[in-house]
Amino acid sequence: MEQVAIRSWGNSQGIRIPKHILDKLDLKTSDVLDILIDHNTIILRKPFEHKTFEQRLAEYNGEISVNDFEWGDPMGKEML
């Protein structure tokens, strides 16, 4: 676990996030993060980003994986 110090930053306070953590999370200067407080914990996370159809299509590599799923034995009046 790493520790950071709270420092004055104008009329506010702030912390510095080490570069190796920013790199690991692919964060850059001016990125916006959601901040949450859960009990006695501060949580910073990337906000959900809705992808456009074009963005999803660009990520598609032409492969579709199909997985069989075993639902188990019928338990009631399921149609077979």
From TrEMBL:
Pfam family, one: MazE_antitoxin
GO-annotated molecular function: DNA binding; toxin sequestering activity
All residue ranges annotated as the SpoVT-AbrB domain in the record: 7-50
InterPro entries documented for this protein: Antitox_PemI-like, SpoVT-AbrB_dom, SpoVT-AbrB_sf
SUPFAM superfamilies given in the database record: AbrB/MazE/MraZ-like (SSF89447)
Domain of life: Bacteria
PANTHER family: ANTITOXIN CHPS-RELATED
Protein name: Antitoxin MazE
Species of the source: [Clostridium] aminophilum
